Amino acid sequence: MGTSQTNKPSGDAGPAPATGTQGKYPPDAGHTSGARPAVHREPLIHLSKRDDVALPKAVLIRLAAVALSLVVCAGVIFLLTRLNPLDVYKGFIDGAIGTSRRTWVTVRDALVLLCVAIGLTPAFKMRFWNIGAEGQVLVGGLASAALMIYAGGRLPGPALLAAMFAASLLAGCIWGLIPAFFKAFWNTNETLFTLMLNYVAMQIVTFCIVFWENPAGSNTVGIINSAKNVPSYQAGYLPSLFGNAYGWNVVIVAALTVGMYIYLKYTKQGYEVAVVGESENTARYAGIHVRKVIMRTMAISGAICGLGGFIIVSGASHTISTSTAGGRGFTAIIVAWLAKFNAFTMVVISFFLVFMQKGAMQIATQFKLNENASDVITGIILFFILGSEFFINYKVRLRRKT
Amino acid sequence: MKKVLSIALTAALCAVTLAACGGGSTTATTAAPAATEAATAAPAATAAPAATEAPAATTAAPAATEAPATEAPSAGIPKDSLRIGFIFIGDENEGYTAAHYEGAKGMQQALGLADSQILIKWQIPEDETCYDAAVDLADQGCQIVFANSFGHEQYMMQAAEEFPDVEFCHATGYQAASSGLENMHNYFTAVYESRYVSGVVAGLKLNQMIEDGKITADQAVMGYVGAFPYAEVISGYTSFFLGARSVCPTATMKVKYVNSWADFALEKEAAQALIAAGCVLISQHADTTGAPTTCEAAGVPIVGYNISMIATAPTQALTSASINWAPYVTFAVQCLIDGDPIPVDWCEGYATGADRITELNEAAVAPGTAEKVAEVEAAIKSGELKVFDTSTWTENGQKLDSYVDDYGNEYIWDGYFHESELASAPSFAIKIDGITDLTD
User: Fold this and answer.
1) B415: left (phi over 0), alpha (psi -120 to 50) or beta
2) Which residues of B touch A364 (CB under 8 A)?
3) Which residues, other chains included, contact A103 with Cβ-Cβ below 8 Å and sequence gap of 6+?
4) Residue A239's domain spans which residues?
5) How far apart are CA A328 and CA A276, in angstroms?
6) Chain A: nearest CA to B223, how far in angstroms?
7) Is A3 helix (H, G, I), strand (E, B) or coil?
8) pLDDT one-digit tens code per residue, B229-252
9) Do A217 and B136 lie within an 8 Å CB cutoff?
10) Largest CA distance in chain B
11) ipTM of this predicted complex?
């Protein structure tokens, strides 16, 4: 930095060696930095840990962070694109919830993200870094799709759906258990293990697409059971509930959310998960069977993620591809962490993230801003929200005037 | 006194209210565009049914009508209330979509439409997102929606079923005719024609290399980076090969698939593998600049696809086979304006300007290329030159007199394979002699 700036008009640059050694403190007239005696002054900023923050204050700090981030985003939008930031914000809202159809698409996608985040929660609470949700979702979706293709039209509707539900749970469960087993018995690195299993799952899906390709040459499976006038027509599609196509999605994910909240907060198993996460030795000393807890928790985690695959395939897309999980296995990690593993906070965060994503499509259409613009905005907002955690945990005090 | 005070207060209140209204009006103006959008959308939606009342396009001859007949202006949609939706798999940074976007802009310019009448959904993958996008465009009052990727077709059909009053046009697909939906259409261009012409450019380059003694006649091996082993790609590389061999009779070709439409790293590697296998000239049917990047580094001439590759390979790019989508998009929208039916299948080539090659790179092409290209282009336009003339190629040493596809359609008569005439999408999937598939 210092050296690159010496390219300025030569008179301005001053003696080059001096600039180099002094780094970012350029020599200036009234400042005698070298000669100053070492006086112990109070540091400019004092940080002290807050013990307990009142909830209203914490909420206030977070709201301030969001407000501030929106102001910064507005500045960035204006500087980069010269558009009216309010119009762009309006575009976001319009794109995500502008029509009832758009609202439901937002809800549908947020539910899937929420489901996967819920699935990841117990694993992360146990400090088991499950980066493999993507794969667990995929195998769950694959199991559902396989049943739709092979059992569609042969089983009665509800039985088929129940079978798909169970199969996706089981597939995700197995995919979660594999790394857990190795972790429990040989202490393998679960981060790498779960991550790599994602690619294994993708390859299996690619392999299956070869057999299920429809139409031929598309390299996709197409909409499964979409052919009319045959018994398999729409077999394995989640039916509408209360007149809404995504009614079941809501019910299933809502049940999972409440269930996970209770499981982690009020059950013995949930407590064991927390203890193992805090310290395995403590858990062992307390008589907790650590191996069992690791495997059980990952079985649950994987199974719920697998169920996410079922919800995608049966409740929304009716197809399977390597992008069925679509990165949601990774985004869900952000959701779970931001929510501090509180199932209800996750609802808000997953909706926020999907809201931004859907809004992005609208601003791309309306203002010709591509998705990267929305990434910038989401990034700024997340930066401020994460940053606000610092101010919730620490008290900042400036140096007292002397 | 009290009275005076109360009057004064009331006046003050009124003033404040007025001021507030004034302040409010600024927010009202920002909301206004949306309101007018809704207003234009409303009459548009009511006008839409009229368009589809026009007789449904029958199995329309693939070499569809030239320009729309300017009769029956009664059932059309006025230009001002038109709203046109596009669903693109990528964005401007990706050659294939960039070409489609150029087509959309060309249509907008040709018909003099406002920016607000063109709604584009970018980066729509081939899954339910495409359906979401299509119905959302219909919800917003689009009377016609175009989609540009092969895998979008099913989702477009799904939307077409739900919105019978909106026209859905899908590029590269083939199911419109069999879907039975009157508002579902397929379109493509006779891209094999531009590939053939680009092949001629390649063949002349090979001749130059042979004459210069860089290679022997037997070493005139071309390499082809293909996306998938589908008819679209096979038809493309075969026409490219036939074009090259029409001027360089000893030319042969090796094909390598990357199994992706757009993967820079894989395309780069495939080109490297082909060069290692002895190929002295490369062409591509995949959407990135991977192959040209390799070629520039290796000093091997390259014929690109979609866009000019001169920026990527300034010393090696000869030209690129390219599609101009504007003629179709303009034609389809014009049909709506005129109230004419849109053909189920549409496929045009050089004659309507739907196909072309990008500028010749004078730094790389063989001398005399421009003249030869002009000659070949004229022959294609006049119909005198048939790309898949059966006298120019053989399968397992045999000249073919008949080729029947899976649906029982005969493609060969009058001495040539009638590519893209029975359906808009390519159907030539014969592996002819002289081309080796390295993937097998």
Assistant:
1) left
2) 120-123
3) A96, A97
4) 118-332
5) 27
6) 22
7) coil
8) 888 899 999 999 999 999 999 999
9) no
10) 115
11) 0.78
